[in-house]
């Protein structure tokens, strides 16, 4: 019975792995095809033609689009962690009236769909003179990343023993020093996890990036890929789109592989007391 259970378990793991990895695998082999070969079903690579990868950077400023995504996602992560860390200290350590209500309000903001706040966010960005600029995208993406960053870090902050904080205050530390030198090293796993999630959300964000940018030089990679055109207005360059998709997926995979131990530690931190 144990052998049957173990075999069934590993078959399920293999099935889930194939289901998750097959789209990426098919995108990779499709990125090396062109012409009529794209519309034939083949599960093994026939040849490795880098034409589509070269075309991605020749037909449009895709290198600039990648740089824009890096700037926007990196800035969003830095600002989200900075504000989330200080907010987590306030919500987790400082008792004040309306703390629970304010925390629930922050959570409620994340429940609104992007379309519901799109018009209001557009008017705000236009009134600030940030339309078709990277700071405008950073401001818009913060609405998506700040709520869950504050919630995750606040939950982690509440699990830390208060004796550490009290000992730091006895030694003459200020609240800012406590946050920066005491809590920040302890919250590194949670910070890495939430930072990576914020990076992925900002990197893959499409609606705000499409709405708040006008020129191709200011777009991030999701709208840049969606607006790719072929030799005519009626042609969809599937090979080029697949190549671009593979290129922008690699940084996310690399980040997950590099920080996988921190991610697991951050996800399981605070799950068990004592």
TrEMBL record:
Q: What's a Pfam family this protein contains?
A: BPD_transp_1
Q: Where in the cell is it found?
A: Cell membrane
What is this protein's name? ABC transporter permease subunit
Q: How does it sit in the membrane?
A: Multi-pass membrane protein
Give the UniProt family note: Belongs to the binding-protein-dependent transport system permease family.
Alphabetized InterPro entries for the sequence: BP-dep_ABC_trans_perm (IPR050901), MetI-like (IPR000515), MetI-like_sf (IPR035906)
Q: What is its main location?
A: membrane
User: What domain of life is recorded for the organism?
Assistant: Bacteria
- Mark the transmembrane ranges: 7-28, 66-89, 101-122, 134-153, 182-203, 236-259
Q: State the organism of origin.
A: Microvirga arsenatis
Where in the numbering of this chain does the ABC transmembrane type-1 domain appear?
Answer: 66-259
Q: Keywords for this entry?
A: Cell membrane, Membrane, Transmembrane, Transmembrane helix, Transport
């Amino acid at each position: 019975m144990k052998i049957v259970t173990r075999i069934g378990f590993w078959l399920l793991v293999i099935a889930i792995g194939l289901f998750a990895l097959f789209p990426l695998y098919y995108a990779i082999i499709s990125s090396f095809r062109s012409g009529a070969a794209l519309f034939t079903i083949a599960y093994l690579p026939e040849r490795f033609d880098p034409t589509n990868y070269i075309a991605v950077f020749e037909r449009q400023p895709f290198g600039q689009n990648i740089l824009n995504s890096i700037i926007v996602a990196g800035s969003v992560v830095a600002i989200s962690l900075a504000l989330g860390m200080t907010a987590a200290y306030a919500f987790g350590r400082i008792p004040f009236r309306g703390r629970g209500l304010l925390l629930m309000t922050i959570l409620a903001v994340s429940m609104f769909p992007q379309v519901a706040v799109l018009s209001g966010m557009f008017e705000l960005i236009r009134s600030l003179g940030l339309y078709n600029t990277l700071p405008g995208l950073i401001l818009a993406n913060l609405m998506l990343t700040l709520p869950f960053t504050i919630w995750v870090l606040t939950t982690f902050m509440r699990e830390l023993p208060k004796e550490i904080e009290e000992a730091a205050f006895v030694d003459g530390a200020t609240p800012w020093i406590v946050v920066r030198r005491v809590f920040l090293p302890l919250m590194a796993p949670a910070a890495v996890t939430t930072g990576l999630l914020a990076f992925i959300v900002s990197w893959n964000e499409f609606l705000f990036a499409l709405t708040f940018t006008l020129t191709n030089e200011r777009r991030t990679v999701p709208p840049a890929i969606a607006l790719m055109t072929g030799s005519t207005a009626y042609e969809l360059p599937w090979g080029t789109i697949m190549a671009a998709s593979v290129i922008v997926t690699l940084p996310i995979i690399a980040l997950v592989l590099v920080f996988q131990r921190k991610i697991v530690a951050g996800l399981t931190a605070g799950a068990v007391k004592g």
